[in-house]
Design brief:
Blueprint (H helix, E strand, L loop, with lengths): L2 H4 L15 H8 L14 H10 L6 H14 L12 H13 L3 H8 L3 H4 L4 H8 L1 H10 L4 H4 L3 H15 L2 H15 L6 H21 L3 H15 L1 H13 L3 H18 L5 E6 L2 H11 L8 E7 L2 H14 L1 E2 L5 E2 L12 E6 L5 E8 H9 L20 H4 L14 H10 L5 H13 L3 E6 L4 E5 L4 H9 L6 E6 L2 E3 L10 E6 L18 H13 L29 E2 L7 E4 L11 E6 L3 E6 L3 H8 L4 E2 L2 E2 L5 E10 L4 H11 L2 E8 L6 E10 L5 H9 L4 E6 L7
Parallel strand pairs: 2-6, 7-11, 13-15
Antiparallel strand pairs: 1-2, 3-5, 4-5, 5-6, 7-8, 9-10, 9-11, 12-17, 14-15, 14-16, 18-20, 18-21, 19-20
Helix pairs in contact: 2-5, 3-5, 4-6, 5-6, 5-12, 6-9, 8-9, 9-11, 9-12, 11-21, 12-13, 12-14, 13-14, 13-22, 14-15, 15-17, 21-24
Length: 704
């Protein structure tokens, strides 16, 4: 039920070979076996399409696969009344036109045999080899009788795991769904809607991520027609009304050809009509559409350098819209897509969008991973199969598979932590809804691929897995950052982990986690530690010492020889302790205030005309000091700091914990030390507490 087939009045969307009469071919296949010395007529179109991409392909295995598929499906019919063999034939033709290699086509012919006939996987393996068997098994559905309502999500889980080892599994599934969507009109409306929603939420995003644009765009139109019939009809009517819109683009295309020809750049300039969903989105974005909005110009050249040369010529001879320029050659999309995007205005003001790419880039843009062929390093054997050793790739057992992208690796990792089918299904749809990816750098030089909008929480779980439960913060581009900080493409991130194994995530982390891996791990930990999910009480404030936080005099710590009877007290602004260099100043009441030599209060006192008083440290080693600990908030932080202080032999005179701001907290302690020489060790011990990133002596505004 393609957009064209559903609406006979719609203009043709692309130039291609005529649509096959699969009903006639399927019925012809039922007349009896074909001579064994030639390809059956029913797959002649498949063979033709396959040879267009692979001229030297051995078609013997396709003939054998067709014979098995036709004989095993004989007597089965689709809901449309067509012989069932027409379905695997159509799926195989779709893949052949995309350029799939022989092994994929063999598996696509057989993809329903194990599921719907008496053929077994052992039979497929024995006759066609391990690779074909793996692909057929990968797309075989799980039985509802065994899995009940979980059959569909568990089938997708099985398929995705198989795709992790061989992306050709998902290529076959996408082609299978496309043909089913084309013929969905014979089903009940409610079943059409259910299948269309799964296609929209799961398979179209997968087609996008695997770069198979040719399948993705047609699937989008088919889903659009089922789920939004009114909008679809409005868009279709708009396309029909502007059937001559191609003339405006054709004029721009001819001018572009002349420009590139005069510049000596061999190029093919084509007019590509937009598919219905693209027209609909553009109409929502711009409102009224002009003639050139119904398509794009596609410029195909031989080499990468020619892409930029063509861009320069077009920008020189037309008026470029710089805001529309994007370079996906220098920075390819995560789905292998490469192209230069620009928009130019002609002398009449008509604006045309232009895509510039090489022929190879175009093939990959249309067919994605299908165009990359066999992901294994081993070469297919003569019969199209491969041995078990071949299936593992190189001699050391490592597969060399450039088609397994980072998003797929992440998906395979988090799905292991989602045994519940509902959790897996909802997480899968949420993951696939993220249509853009960023790359961030680890402090050790590695990289992490994350969805756009990911935070430091996501980076921590992507790098450390469940060990990220102990994360207390992060450094982003060398600077301390809260866990909620969103990361940008190219950022360097270093998650900071606590040494305390009992540390765990806060429920607030779920507000910042974008990846399913992080959300599943956090949710699981909170479920196992229900006490951590309860709202945390406000951090306790130890009552401050009398005098509004100002320190009382400390006996026999410092003395002023010139004023033997004066009361000597240590300044609260800098909290000097032995063996600091100190300076004293006489203040009201006959007291002497002692400051550290580098304290800003010393400069202010001198500026006021105050003369310094000689002071020195007395014999007593006991002293009092105020320390400020800067930390990232986490459970038990106050308790751990207090324990570290006690272990260092210091007593807490007073403590203040300020309310957290962006997960950062400030603890201020006034401490009594038995020996001032232990202060450096005490500060080191406090800095080693998980989450604490700095400890300093207090610096408050000086007072006279």
């Amino acid at each position: 039920m393609s957009a064209e087939a559903t609406n006979p009045g719609a203009p043709s969307r692309r130039r291609a070979r005529s649509r096959l009469d699969l009903r006639r071919l399927g019925r012809a296949a039922l007349l009896g076996p074909t001579a064994r010395d030639r390809v059956p007529d029913a797959i002649g179109h498949v063979a033709e399409a396959h040879r267009a991409h692979h001229p030297d392909a051995d078609l013997t295995i396709l003939r054998r696969a067709y014979v098995l598929a036709e004989s095993s499906h004989r007597g089965q019919f689709r809901k449309s009344g067509e012989p069932y063999i027409t379905h695997p034939l159509a799926v195989t033709l779709i893949l052949a036109e995309l350029g799939a290699e022989t092994t994929t086509l063999t598996a696509s012919l057989l993809h329903d045999t194990v599921e719907d006939t008496d053929v077994t996987l052992d039979q497929v393996r024995a006759e066609f080899g391990e690779e074909v068997c793996y692909l057929v098994d990968g797309v075989t559905k799980l039985e509802k009788v065994d899995y009940g309502a979980a059959a569909e999500p568990e089938t997708f889980r099985k398929m995705l795991v198989a795709t992790g080892n061989d992306v050709r599994v998902m290529s076959i599934k996408l082609a299978d769904r496309l043909h089913n969507m084309r013929t969905l009109g014979v089903m009940r409306p409610e079943k059409q809607a259910r299948i269309a929603k799964v296609t929209r939420d799961v398979l179209i995003p997968l087609a996008e991520r695997l770069g198979v644009q040719a399948l993705k765009t047609e699937l989008e139109d088919l889903v659009f027609a089922i789920l939004h019939p009114e909008e679809y009809e409005r868009t279709r009517a708009l396309v029909v009304e502007n059937a001559d819109a191609g003339d405006a683009l054709a004029a721009v295309a001819e001018s572009a050809r002349a420009v590139l020809r005069d510049a000596g750049i061999p190029a093919e300039v084509l007019v590509r009509p937009r598919h219905f969903v693209s027209v609909h989105r553009l109409r929502l974005k711009r409102g009224e559409l002009s003639g050139t909005d119904f398509g794009r110009l596609l410029v195909l050249v031989a080499e990468d350098a020619d892409c930029y040369a063509a861009l320069g010529e077009l920008h020189t001879c037309f008026t470029p819209l710089i805001s529309e320029f994007k370079d996906f050659i220098a920075a390819p999309k995560f789905n292998l897509y490469q192209s230069l995007h620009t928009a130019v205005a002609g002398s009449d003001g008509a604006v045309a969008e232009v895509l510039i790419r090489t022929h190879q880039m175009h093939r990959v843009a249309e067919a994605g991973v299908v165009a990359l062929g066999n992901p294994y390093t081993a070469v297919d054997t003569a019969d199209g199969g491969a041995t078990a050793g071949d299936a593992s790739g190189g001699a050391d057992g490592e597969r060399a598979d450039p088609t397994r992208p980072g998003w797929l690796s992440r998906l395979l990792e988090w799905q292991e932590s989602a045994p519940d089918p509902d959790t897996f299904w909802t997480s899968l749809q949420a993951d696939l809804a993220e249509d853009r990816e960023i790359t961030v750098f680890r402090a050790d030089g590695g990289t992490l691929g994350l969805p756009a909008g990911a935070s430091c929480v996501d980076a921590a779980y992507a790098q450390y897995g469940d060990a990220a439960h102990a994360c207390v913060g992060a450094r982003v581009n060398g600077r301390l950052a809260a866990l909620a900080t969103r990361l940008g493409d190219g950022d360097t991130v270093q998650p900071l982990l606590a040494q305390d194994a009992a540390s765990g995530p806060s429920p607030d982390w779920l507000d910042h986690a974008r990846t399913p891996a992080a959300r599943i791990a956090i949710t699981s930990w909170l479920a196992e530690h229900p006490e951590a999910a309860k709202p945390q009480a406000a951090a306790p404030r130890t009552p401050a010492s009398p005098g509004g936080g100002r320190r009382a005099a400390v006996d026999a710590v410092a003395e002023a020889p010139g004023m033997p009877d004066a009361t000597v007290r240590l300044a609260g602004c800098c909290t000097p302790v032995p063996p600091d260099v100190v300076t004293g100043f006489a203040v009201r009441g006959g007291a002497v205030t002692v400051h550290r030599g580098e304290c800003p209060g010393v400069s202010r006192m001198r500026a006021m005309g105050r003369e310094p008083v000689e002071v020195r440290w007395g014999r007593a080693a006991e002293c009092r000091v105020t320390l400020v600990a800067e930390a990232l908030g986490r459970p038990r932080l106050l308790a751990d700091l207090t324990e570290a202080i006690a272990a260092a032999g210091a007593a807490v005179v007073s403590a203040t914990v300020e309310p957290p701001s962006e997960q950062r907290v400030r603890h201020t302690y006034t401490l009594q030390l038995q020996d001032a020489a232990g202060l450096p060790a005490l500060m080191r011990a406090m800095r080693e507490v998980a989450g604490v990133y700095d400890v300093n002596r207090a610096q408050h505004p000086a007072s006279a």
